[in-house]
Amino acid sequence: MLSISYASAQQLNISGVVISSEDNEPLIGATVSVKGNPTKGVITDINGQFQLSVEAGTKMLVVSYVGMKTQEIRVPRKEKELKIVLIPETMDIDEVVVTGYGNFSKSSFTGSANTLRTDMLKEVPVMSVEQKLQGMTTGVQITSSSGQPGANQSIRIRGMGSFNASQEPLFVIDGVPVTSGSMSSGGPDAAYMNNSKTNIMSTLNPSDIENVTVIKDAAAASLYGSRAANGVILITTKKGNTGKVRVDLNVSGGFSHAAVDFRPTLNGDQREELLYEGLLNYATDNGMESPAEYASSNIGTYAYKPAMGYTDWRKELLRTATHQSYEASVSGGNDRSTFYASLGYNSQEGLAKNSSLDRYSARLNMTQKVGKYGEVGANMMFSQMNQEMNEERGSSINPFLCVAMTMTPSMVVRDEEGNYVGAYDGTSLNPLRDILTDYNRVRMTRMFSTGYAAIEPVKGLKLKETLSYDYTIQKDSRYYNPLSSAGPKSGSDAQTAKGFIEYGKLISSTSLNYVHTFAHKHHLNVLAAYEIESYQTDHASGEKSKLPSDKLTEPDNAAVLNSFKSATQAYRMISYLSRLNYDYDDRYYIAGSYRRDGSSRLSPNNRWGNFWSVSGMWHLGNENFMKAVKPVLSDVKIRASYGVNGNQPGSYYGYKGLYSYGENYMEAAGSYESSQPNDLLTWEKNYSLNLGIDLSFINRIFASLEYYNRDTKDLLYSLPISATTGFTSYLSNIGRLNNKGIEFELRTLNVVSNDFNWTSVFNLSHNRNKIVSLNGLLDQTIEGTWFIHKVGLPYHTFYVKEFAGVDPQTGYAQYYLNTKNEDGSYNRELTTDADKAESIPYKTATPKVSGGFTNILNYKWIDLTFTLTYSLGGYSFDKLGTYIENGTSSIYSSRYNLPAYMMNRWQNPGDQTDIPRFVYNESATSTNSSRYIHSTDHLRLKNFTLGFTLPNQWTQKLMIDKVRIYFSGNNLLTWAKWKQYDPETPVNGEVFCEAPAMRTFSFGAQLSF
User: Fold this and answer.
1) 835: burial class by Cβ within 10 Å (0-12, 13-18, 19+)?
2) How far apart are CA 465 and CA 376, in angstroms?
């Protein structure tokens, strides 16, 4: 409310209150000043109220607050009550960029970074923060090899930058680097137990996140040295604010289906029709007297209708998954101390009947002023996850493999009495029984605590000590019943296994930061720091058999020890770092950083690495000659940066020549040489150039265009060597990769008013990845059956025989010969003999263009947010297709299912199709054929949120500040060029029968007190 009274003919006494449009809470510390005279102003108090005396005739007041849109308020002529409501400035070009070693305004940051605040991340129904970033920022590609809840995510920032070392970005939470990814990667139990499906970052409750900053270039990333080659993702958790204590409750629940129609297959009658046709064609081709009689007499062996009718295996093995979430937080503080505390419980079922994730989380963040110059604080997190996983490899109990290939409609689940039986005669195979009986479980417990103490003895000079400990333990347990057909199981006995992996990371950081302004125009920010990182991991796993009962599945109850493995590893790193930022008159900016890392993963002669960056910016918008165009071209910035960061070897002892023990040699402990020494092993080095321009038009349209070139040298690579040495590979620094690309982002304030606000964000990323060199001698290496690593081509390039479609007259699959002509060109003649065709590099998994389009709308008490993501120019290889399309004899003998698109096969001369004629005992095509390569082009409604906030006059009667009910969805709609599986495929493009992404529907309510 704003009231005006005349103190005299020359003065007006103005008083009022300023509140936020988001929650109608008072804004403490908002500035109210006279337009044109910013020195004539006041600050709102703890209740958001202010009093200001102005001269008579004053027409406008300016009201501003950090993170809110500045508004101009007309001074009324008569005494009246007004409400000054500020709305969030979601697209403020001067937003804060968090770097982990200090925060900077966007207008003064010389590097490349994107910051996503709470308003762009809220209510997206996911279990990990990585999934919230999809489509929200340029240069970031996020994929997953599994759609199971809590599964590990793959993140690529500006392409991939390594062959063998980590390709994942560094995660930093509240300024501290943390462990991320999968704990099972590379562990002895990873091959058969957890299989890298548990994501450590899923322990973090996304509701506790205030903002996420993605750092992509060297300007800030080089401060993290040997860990920042793949970019840095900085997460800032919520903290308390001064003012009234605030309590927030959030309750939601919903259900999920597969985001796409996962590998649709033929029904029982269609499958019988197709198999009958195959037999008929076979008999005809072999000149049998009565092909129809032959087909009719044999079809019952492969396709038949059981007495109880066809089986719908999708209905038996999969389900409509449900999820629920309960979260509560309390925050508040005063000018001396602040606090934020939260509790959360999240539960999400997977699509298969034996997959789920439960998470319990708690957080406490506190700050406290000490005397006039000191401050202490602590951030503490505890989380426990319980994960139930289904098999996803080539196993008979992989539910998605079952519905796509191995379980046909002719196979049964139960007999007439309801008892489980073998799916077909002569076997005990029954995936539903095994899925409900077997288990594969994970319990992950994480405790992450950070404490700091800072003192500012001289204004602008701050000494800070930070100490953090990140502890995680993952416990795995697995059981296979005696009849189980699980792929890893051997023999007819029940098998039980148990294991654990324990990580602990201690980090100490001591920093001295000096900030000062000279002569009002020279701004200086200098940082020096010393850091120590100590990391240790311990893991063990064992498997036993001969259990007395299916109720006593603890390994201690079993009689026979099948295997036991264990290991303890550790590494340490010491770092010295410095940074200098200088700007003159907010127009010319220059920054530099230097870091020196010493890692125990490298030999003493090669232990230290130097990483640095230089960057600069010209803020044209603040030049005098720009004033004439300010009404249209509001702001212009030109940025440039160049620097070096790196990657450590993934092996903790990769430079050493090691002996391994544990082999049984005449009933004594035997040893063998397990690795060769390499004292020359060193860091991978990443040289990154970034050029950018930022434009602002009419203070409503913000555009950013960036070009980057990223060279990775001294790549860590397992170089093949002669087996006569006793080894087949040798870890060394060879090869070079290059990533270059363009990123564009457009942010627009379409409508800004007290009642209606509409903001849009469009982003586009293009990255070109190529191998520059391998070992200097090799030009290419063939990887597996359908991949090639070749100089000049992207790393994930397919190497296949080129499918040329189906001959319309005969129905046979055709291929281009692709033999080399004398002039080096390819011979494009056709052949129906796949053995005569040559494999060639063909397509890549990396998309040419990807991005997203986000809209945030608010109208009075209604809010709407949605994000569309897209990808163009990428391809995938359907590994499963090589089983169910190639070699119809195996389809018959193994009684495989058939994909629905097989109904489009060639049948008569003149048919135009890419599915060959179906014939029993005749191979359809080669397994390494481009026939199995499909486009991943798609457009997806990634998330959608619609909320309704009840009017204040309703909620205040109940003593509630805010009540909001909402609907939120994830992966709601997908338009894909190839519709058999989810278009968001694994990084390398190879697709088998992993759990698909989920289409999630959530309904919830938020209450604030």
Assistant:
1) exposed
2) 10
Instruction: Provide the 3-class DSSP secondary structure of residue 200.
Output: helix
Phi-psi label, residue 295: left if phi above 0, alpha if psi -120 to 50, beta otherwise: alpha
Task: Report the DSSP beta bridge partners of residue 816.
Answer: 830
Indicate if the pLDDT at residue 909 is higher than 90: yes
Q: CA nearest 168: which of 243, 73, 233?
A: 233
Q: Which residues contact 329 (CB under 8 A, 6 or more apart)?
A: 207, 208, 238, 247, 248, 340, 341, 342, 343
For 360, 361, 444, 1006, the CA distances from 345, given in Å and listed in that order, are 5, 6, 15, 15
The 3-state secondary structure of 20-67 reads ECCCCCECCCCEEEECCEEEEEEECCCCCEEEEEEECCCCEEEEECCC
889 SS3 class: helix
pLDDT at 193: 62
| 455: exposed, middle or buried (Cβ count in 10 Å: 0-12, 13-18, 19+) | middle
Torsion angle (degrees, nearest 10) of CA 817, 819, 820, 826: 20
CA angle 984, 763, 66 (to 5 degrees): 120
**Spatial separation of the C-alpha atoms in residues 647 and 912, rounded to whole Å:** 52
pLDDT at 508: 96
d(CA 985, CA 989): 6
Residue 570: pLDDT over 50: yes
Give the DSSP letter string of 144-159: ES--STT--EEEEESS
DSSP strand E in 197-242: where?
A: 209-215, 232-237
52 pLDDT band, cuts 50/70/90, is confident
Q: How far is CA 739 from CA 279, 641, 693, 871, in A?
A: 52, 16, 20, 18
Q: Are 355 and 149 a contacting pair, CB within 8 Å?
A: yes
Mean pLDDT of the chain: 87
Q: DSSP readout, 275-336?
A: HHHHHHHHHHHTT-S-HHHHHHHHHHHH----TT----HHHHHB--EEEEEEEEEEEEE-SS
The DSSP symbol for 88 reads B
For residue range 800-824, list pLDDT tens digits in order: 999 999 999 999 999 999 999 988 8
Coil/strand/helix, residue 227: helix
Cβ-count burial 214-240 (b if 16+ within 10 Å, e if not) = bbbbbbbbbbbbbbbbbbbbbbbbbbb
Q: What is the pLDDT of residue 657?
A: 85
Residue 792 predicted with pLDDT over 90? yes
User: H-helix or E-strand containing 453?
Assistant: strand 439-458
- The Cα 603–Cα 599 span in angstroms is 9
Residues 828 and 837 sit within 8 Å (Cβ to Cβ): no
Tokens 């200097």 label which residue? 776
Rounded Cα distance between 294 and 289, Å, is 9
CB atoms within 10 A of CB 36: 10
pLDDT tens across 192-241, in order?
466 667 888 889 998 899 888 899 888 888 888 888 888 899 999 999 88
Residue 625 per-residue DSSP state: G
Closest to 487 measured CA to CA, from 565, 390, 573: 390
Residues 6+ apart with CB under 8 A from 116: 132, 133, 136, 137, 211, 212, 213, 214
Instruction: Report which DSSP code applies to 405.
Output: I
Q: Positive or negative, the Cα torsion across 595, 600, 603, 605? A: positive
How many alpha carbons lie under 13 Å from residue 571 in its C-beta half-sphere? Answer: 18
What pTM did the predictor assign?
A: 0.87
Determine contact, residues 858/756, Cβ cutoff 8 Å. Answer: yes
* Rounded-to-integer distance, Cα 385 and Cα 389, Å: 12
DSSP SS3 for 663: strand
Under 8 Å between Cβ of 197 and 389? yes
Backbone angles phi, psi at 638, to 5 degrees: -120, 125
